[in-house]
Amino acid sequence: MQETPIEKIYDAFIQCNQKICTDTRKLIEGSIFFCLKGANFNANEFAAKALDGGCSYVVVDEEKYVTTPKTFFVRDVLTALQQLANYHRKQLSIPFLAITGSNGKTTNKELINAVLSKKYKTLSTIGNLNNHIGVPLTILSITKEHEFAIIEMGANHQGEIDALCKIAEPDFGLITNIGKAHLEGFGGIEGVKKGKSEMYKFIATKGGKIFINGDDEVLQSLANANDKITYGTTRLFDVIGQASNTDEFVSFKWTTRYGEKDWSKLPLVKTNIIGHYNFINLLCAVSVGNYFKVEDLKINEALSEYTPNMNRSQLEKTTNNTLILDAYNANPSSMKVAIENFAALSSANKLLIIGDMFELGEYAGEEHKKIVDLIADKKIVDVILVGPEFCKVAPSNFKTFKTTNEALEHLKANIQKNKTILIKGSRGMKLELLKDTL
Q1: Lower CB count within 10 Å: N or C terminus of the chain?
Q2: How many CB atoms lie within 10 A of CB 202?
Q3: How far is CA 64 from CA 31, 44, 51, 129, 283, in A?
Q4: What is the DSSP letter of 35?
Q5: Euclidean distance between CA atoms 76 and 336, whole angstroms
Q6: In whole angstroms, what is the distance from residue 61 CA to residue 277 CA?
Q7: Can you give the pLDDT at residue 185?
Q8: In 3D, which of 235, 230, 233 has the Cα closest to residue 290?
Q9: What is the C-alpha to C-alpha distance for residues 92 and 167, in angstroms, rounded to an integer?
Q10: pLDDT band at 149, cuts 50/70/90?
């Protein structure tokens, strides 16, 4: 059977007002249903159900399911979805900014979106749709009304960022940092460097620009061939910042290469974001906004108004305690800076609750032990460790629980009061379940 041309599927996509569906449990009337396959499902089997449920067309990759003129046949549905996204991208003349990195991808995306939204109608990745399916779906949601696209890209193996860049064809790129994330899939830290820097290589071939933390020597060493827009603290970068020594929320000042250099004359930007490690993320958002000619006052306004969500760098005061919720995800790099920041807080009565870090493979034991040693070095004494990896390396003076539910039962039986509590762990640990008890 002959494969349906992408151009024909695209015509149907436009006819359907750009409505795409991939889940028969959430059918969208008048959409194109893509019959994706997974380890435990084959959506080709649901093609008829999708049409009966109101979808206008279906895309299948098994000939026996081609039963009506509303069925498009392709060799591989996922590949067709990606090709459709790239075809749509080629029809768009707006700037595309791609964001990747070991830590802070979503925070940077949200901050940049907040800033650019002061001047442009933006489209940014929703939630964590940053993989080989999420990126195409994000691109396909861009309409003619949008003026700027911000695309988050995640990866846990080499070659993934390059593949996503070939779909999105970004004009601008940003790597937040390179750290110890997904070490198992990347094959160690050198593999992480190689994988993440695929974005720099793609941007260079397209003649685009990258936004880069000039203070980060690792990123600088990987970006020799790139046209750079720099931000940082140590030299005369395109955007220069100074963080203020406040206790909980990050405050900072900034200027530009050709701007005011008397720091006393510059406004202090006060944010609702905790963690000194977020200062460089805020400065990055300033850099992007400044390059795309968002007014200084609007940049400051956007960053002052932004409130974190999704358990990322959130400060929440409960009846009993002050919670620092950073439970969305964790790896050795992000765990280290979170603990260092927590240790530096002036709060007298602190409790540290951390959970296992996933996808570390052969590095798991070593990296969990380093975190335990860091806690001891920072003299944090009230500690709860959750997960089998931390249980293996925990000293006797720390409370340990193999599961989050076990930790939850302990906290229910031992009510915590008047404490500042950091909660951080990998997504799979679901440490946010402890919040209501605290």
Answers
A1: N
A2: 20
A3: 22, 9, 16, 31, 54
A4: -
A5: 42
A6: 46
A7: 65
A8: 230
A9: 13
A10: very high
Domains of the chain plus CATH, in order, are: 6-84 (3.40.1390.10), 92-305 (3.40.1190.10), 314-437 (3.90.190.20)
Tokens of 92: 């768009």
Average pLDDT score over residue span 199-226? 93
Between 313 and 392, the more confident residue is: 392
Give the DSSP H/E element, type plus range, for residue 203.
helix 198-206
End-to-end CA distance of the chain: 60
Strands (E) across 29-114 are located at 32-34, 57-60, 71-73, 96-100
Q: Is the predicted pLDDT of residue 40 greater than 70, yes or no?
A: yes
Question: With contact defined as beta carbons under 8 Å apart, do 88 and 6 qualify?
Answer: no
8 Å CB contact between 271 and 236: no
d(CA 71, CA 1): 12
Q: Which tokens sit at 78?
A: 């996922």
- Mean pLDDT for the chain overall: 92
Res. 147 pLDDT band, cuts 50 70 90: very high
Tokens of 431: 């440490």
pLDDT, position 210: 97
d(CA 286, CA 281): 9
Q: pTM for this one?
A: 0.88
Tell me the HSE value of 316 on the side-chain side, using a 13 A CA sphere. 20
Strands 420-424, 399-401: parallel, antiparallel or unpaired by DSSP? unpaired
